[in-house]
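Key idea: predict the complex, not the pieces.
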Amino acid sequence: MQKSSASLTQAERSALSDTAMLDAAKDLVLVHGTEKTTLAMIGESAGYSRGLATYRFGSKAGLYDALCKSISRDWLEYLKRGVGEKTGIDAMCAALDAIRQFVEDLPREGRVLQILYCDSASPSSEFPETSISIHKRQRSDVQKWAEQGQASGQIRSDVDPGEVASQYVSYISGMTFLWLTNPETFNFETTNAEMKRQLRDSLAAKQGDGQ
Amino acid sequence: MQKSSASLTQAERSALSDTAMLDAAKDLVLVHGTEKTTLAMIGESAGYSRGLATYRFGSKAGLYDALCKSISRDWLEYLKRGVGEKTGIDAMCAALDAIRQFVEDLPREGRVLQILYCDSASPSSEFPETSISIHKRQRSDVQKWAEQGQASGQIRSDVDPGEVASQYVSYISGMTFLWLTNPETFNFETTNAEMKRQLRDSLAAKQGDGQ
DNA sequence: AATCACTTGCTTGCTGACAGCAAGTAAGTT
DNA sequence: AACTTACTTGCTGTCAGCAAGCAAGTGATT
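Result:
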């Protein structure tokens, strides 16, 4: 069963058009935003008809949800590779580096993801789950790192891991948000350096403060 | 020149319809989001015709920009009152309390403002200036507080006030964003308490570390 | 291996809703 | 009474979503 470019299986055809449309959507959203990007633009820009995007993703929200999930998968891959088996303050710092690496390697994806997060914050959002679950997952990851850091004695035992996680995730969310809106005045690198310094200074167990 | 409810000056009439429409817009945006709220809904919900909102504010973006400015003014009032003449770490902590107070007293306005900030992050936003200038102003305020704190010896001299400000403003932005999207799981009070603790622990000058 | 019934990928025509505009009416101002 | 300002109504172009149809791939039977 040979597959030339002229003869594809159904699955291959739809996979091809899917990725072509999601890719076109990224470019269009970067320029026009989600609202002014039309489903017709996406379909035609991907080399198909004006109707395909609607047909495939059901609705505009459906397409953006798929896009959000797709980019989120890429991001989680970066996070996993960057943090590895680290725990405690080291894991938190590594995650900050992973974000920087992600937006450096895939700035398009980083910006689009942030735009979609903003969209999903609207009360009328039809895809809030993806964004919310990502943030909840981030928070529980950080909480786990903090607990492990306390168990190993790296992190002082009198802080609440859950609140440390909330504070940390808030910083991440706001940092990426401000990076989106103020790309020129915002310096990822130095701001993250300050965050790392604060984490070490405020979380590290004092000398001889073993459990 | 007496003013009964039936006989108003032109200025009074337009001021009345303006505030009525902005107020109606708040309620509608809270329920339907900015996108699914229509100008016709706003005008009619305020007791006027479907066309007034467009006529008065020029466009949907124009209305949301006016709404953003209006709520921002309220917020800056709270900030001013809460911070007063404080500087350094005290000012930063007072600003956190001011935010909590604002969303406690005016939860509607707090939520709508956050929704509008998210909207203005889109590349197609026609009112990005208001949101950006607010965040820039916040950042320069915090930087000033940090510099004053260093000058008075409260804050250690080896931190960069600009980066402290970036980190602080990132936290604020993210915190309010997460509060909007996860109102039930997010606790303003305790998360801010952790932030205050971190600020004190990581910024306070050590004993005898005078300039 | 040829063909026929069936599924899936994709396109085109249509409808209702909305933003924005332009022309008009009513209310106040000098 | 002339004029300005507040507000309304009729209209147009655009878009999301739907439904009907066409084309290409798939699988079973003989």
